[in-house]
User: What shape does this take?
Amino acid sequence: MGIDSIINFEVESNLDFATMSTSSIITTLIIALIFIIANWKIFTKAGKPGWASIVPIYNIIVFFQIVKRPIWWIILMFIPFVNIVISIIVMLDLLKVFGKSGALWVIGIIFFNPIATLMLAFGDAEYNESAL
Assistant: This one.
């Protein structure tokens, strides 16, 4: 095993990593774009500006307004373990304001959130402000 084979191995390994990284980045960007569109749609269904879904922190504030929770709950989102409980409560409230109930929706929004979010955004769910 000479120096040429070592150099070739390193070059091939780096190329494989670059290809894998590029495809991972592209896949991640496509998935992120799909969920930006889904959240935009959910915000507009709720009568809020869609652009608010892409502004960090402000999107959480608007989301809390959609589900009728106090704005100060954003502080709770920064406390470990408490944030998990608050997230579940807010997700269940989201189901309520969009008129969705039942065990499958609850399981979906908690364990299969991306799929449930897409179903809320592009399905027949309608925002009902007085549901909570």
User: Anything to note?
Assistant: The two ends are 71 Å apart (CA to CA).
